[in-house]
């Protein structure tokens, strides 16, 4: 039982990372970035290229890829989001659907369609903690996720971070504070692209690297965001870990075939029972 | 300080302002009166750059700000406290105030001093500084909105209907504080439906009707004007 829960937390923390990127963009510009998963996949290929063709070691390729992810975020914003900024949110979301195909096609043609293996953070023997056998790599994944969440938490308390939250709550009022909404939007694209890349590189050793590696993870990260609350920054973390644990329990005690189905049933139930998610609150504006 | 010449604002086919001239002198409280739909809010939004379809000239301290971005206008020293308060409900009181000082982020400003300056006007906000702003009462939210607008150290403070929906006792308190803010050197542009209160605290007033200035003058004079009394003061 505890073994199942622990491995649920590990996959869950990766869902949480990807979901956080989704929520960040959604909260500030009402856009659901459907291409989040593909951006993660593309960045993971970049990391792979750095390691195999350029010959860089993992610990250099990793941060370098994060920087590239930031640049990818800016490019996507410049080429797709900014030109559409005057049109409605739906058009932008459809554009991100298009981006899925663009990135998918690009990745296949540049990096190839065959599946590749991707190295882990560290290779070491399993350790045993309180009867639960743990892979050091997994432990590191959880630690990294936790560190990222924590640093984002503190970032949201700084002036720039509060500016992001202000734009998320009231765009016009934020403008009146002298906040540049464009700048905030591009920042959220950079951060969520970086989060996507991190999630992609950490999950690639398990899913293997190919152009469809993120499809399931991406959908699960949606589930995580809905479960925790698409309107909060804490939500995706809680939702991600919960989904990870629950689907593992279903896989173990009911049937593996029901694992993914369960995640989606949960979402439908959540949307009916608590559309704001577990952590979501709705504030009424006082008149 | 703020000179508005022949300002026109359109929303699609609707002309919200049809050529308005307004002159605000530094150090004064100037009020703009008028009923719903007279164009009062459009006027403020035009000044702070929130509406795009406009023509005419807006000069602030001699500088043409007509087509500037809102960020730029705010950093020049115009602070706009919008209608309906528009505080950030999920930020705490202190975070709301902090973001009010966003334009000063690259200057050496002691935020703590600024907080204290605002808390001196609104002691209630200090008690509630860690509270999430969405849980404040209507009056407290208005105080927070004004306090937040003061955080950018504005030269001109524009207030859009600060008395809207508040109990009379709180309205009086807010008007008193506006007067106090003005006496510390901030020019105030006050938009009000509560004509009586606005005329009492302001130096000069304009009356807007259907997007045009129909009357203007010293507030004391307007307060005794037969026509104004009939249409706006109900006496």
From TrEMBL, chain A:
Alphabetically list the UniProt keywords.
Answer: Amino-acid transport, Cell membrane, Membrane, Transmembrane, Transmembrane helix, Transport
Q: Which residues cross the membrane?
A: 6-26, 31-50, 56-77, 89-111, 138-156, 184-204, 224-246, 253-273
Q: What Pfam families has UniProt attached to this entry? A: BPD_transp_2 (PF02653)
GO molecular function of the protein, one example? transmembrane transporter activity
Q: Which domain of life is it from?
A: Bacteria
List the record's Gene Ontology CC terms alphabetically. Answer: plasma membrane
- Family affiliation: Belongs to the binding-protein-dependent transport system permease family. LivHM subfamily.
Q: What is this protein called?
A: Amino acid/amide ABC transporter membrane protein 1, HAAT family
Show the taxonomic lineage. Bacteria, Bacillati, Bacillota, Clostridia, Eubacteriales
Automatic annotation (TrEMBL), chain B:
| InterPro entries listed in its UniProt record | AAA+_ATPase (IPR003593), ABC_branched_ATPase_LivF/BraG (IPR030660), ABC_transporter-like_ATP-bd (IPR003439), ABC_transporter-like_CS (IPR017871), BCAA_Transport_ATP-bd_LivF (IPR052156), P-loop_NTPase (IPR027417)
Its GO biological process terms? L-amino acid transport
Q: Please, which domain of life does this record's source organism belong to?
A: Bacteria
What GO molecular function annotations does the UniProt record carry, in alphabetical order? ATP binding; ATP hydrolysis activity; branched-chain amino acid transmembrane transporter activity
Record SMART domains: AAA (SM00382)
The UniProt entry's sequence similarity note says: Belongs to the ABC transporter superfamily.
The protein here is known as: Branched-chain amino acid transport system ATP-binding protein
